[in-house]
Amino acid sequence: MSAPRPALAVASEIAPLVKTGGLADVVGALPGALAPQGWALRTLVPGYRAVMAALKRPKPVADWPDLLGRPARLLAAEVAGLDLLVLDAPELYDREGSPYLDAAGNDWPDNDLRFAALCKAAALVAGGAVKGWRPELVHLHDWQAGLTPVYLAEAGLATPTLLTIHNIAFHGLTAANRLAALRLPEVGYSLDGFEYYGHISALKAGLTGARALTTVSPTYAQELMTEDFGMGLDGVLRHRRADLGGILNGIDTTVWNPATDPAIRPFSTPAGKAANARILRAEFGLAKGAGPLAVVVSRLSDQKGLDLLLAALPGFLAGGGQVALLGSGDRRLENAWLTAAAAHPGRVGVRIGYDEALSHRMYAGADAVLVPSRFEPCGLTQLYALRYGALPVVARTGGLADTVIHANAAALAAGCATGILHQPGSVGALDQALAQLCALWRQRDTFRQIQRNAMRHPVGWEASAPLYAALYARLTVDNRETA
Ligand code: ADP
What we know:
Blueprint: E1 5-10, H1 22-34, E2 39-46, H2 49-54, E3 59-67, E4 70-79, E5 82-88, H3 90-93, H4 111-126, E6 137-141, H5 148-154, E7 161-165, E8 173-175, E9 195-196, E10 199-201, H6 202-209, E11 212-215, H7 218-223, H8 227-230, H9 234-239, E12 244-246, H10 274-284, E13 293-300, H11 306-318, E14 322-329, H12 331-343, E15 348-352, H13 356-365, E16 368-371, H14 381-387, E17 391-395, H15 398-403, H16 409-414, E18 420-422, H17 427-442, H18 444-456, H19 464-482
Parallel strand pairs: 1-2, 1-6, 2-5, 6-7, 7-11, 11-12, 13-14, 13-16, 14-15, 16-17, 17-18
Antiparallel strand pairs: 3-4, 4-5, 8-10, 9-10
Helix pairs in contact: 4-5, 10-13, 11-17
Bound molecules: adenosine-5'-diphosphate.
The site of adenosine-5'-diphosphate (ADP) has 18 residues, from helix 1, strand 13, strand 14 and helix 13.
């Protein structure tokens, strides 16, 4: 077999080291998924305090006394099987708080510089800063990596770039007068560069500058080119239609395996979920139910539609349903859900916070997982739901539409239904979906059959890894031809 081909991934999060959402899971999973495809991915990440603490015997591989005005070093390290390049720049990353927010929940005021430095480092690595290693391709993730093509072009490098859009809601905007501080070329501040309504947009820099673009589901790729979903960048994406594709995310099916998961009572058939359901009910103070036990594991943000679920709650509870929610984010939503729990003791349980192990126990014990998102680039929670035999009840949007097979009469007859889909953004539609869930739950055999279908549905990287590999190969062939 020929030697694996080197590629550099650039991201602001990577599981299991630092995670605020699905981006981290995907960035953490891609190296393992692409290795059998002949690609050796090294991932460049910021040296946040938590990342630095996790490094064992890091090896300094580059020293930059002036990386956009700050001293920085590049460290090579292996953590949890991941081949990392860590940008150690204490002035930028050594602080308490999340990757993006301070303890009070505000954006770090220097986020533009923090992630521009990451992009500048990526360009330096592509240019050969790490002795003996040079990537054939750079895979960028979201706005935090978006300025990389600009710095590559500035350095006269033709390394091909692929930008994956995990969520177009975040544009990485900063003031136009930051050009000099970020050492960006003035010529790039234009309509076909990174100018965005009088600001610099790091995401737009990536959308206009990367050789190819992907997003994390075929449906979201189409949606992104529409005004309703493009968040002001639909025109740019329509312009780049020929270079934009959708590749579904997978999940790590060894970590998320109900038969071996150490966080739960392992099971391999729907019947085996009962013990987990009892534990889950006890954990959330829920009574023995007369209907389905539905769970939500989510960031609490407008995107996720959990305000709609609050409005649909009375009908669902009247139908015998129960809800356990784990999430954090928007303070108003947190309070609204705590209020709902207080109003419906034994029927609604809420845990505000982030708890990975608890999330496993929730998928294991649940009859259903609710994802009423207004938009959802791919979504991972419905994939965990499928794997753990919990019916996903999801809005028909983005990756949710691509991964769940609606239990209509035809799909039920064909034995391929895996969940319930409803129109996004509508309380009425959600009401109906939850009513269908309650009705199906009462038809025990049918419900079990859907659970079995769900558990069999492929949710790993089998299908998507070859698509990424093919795209990498095409981009690097193009590069050889144009070099
Ligand atoms: P997004 O990236 O928009 O937040 P995804 O569904 O793609 O949504 O990914 C969310 C990931 O974060 C999943 O792995 C989910 O289980 C996890 N997650 C979200 N909120 C929590 C929480 N409060 N506790 C534990 N895990 C969470």
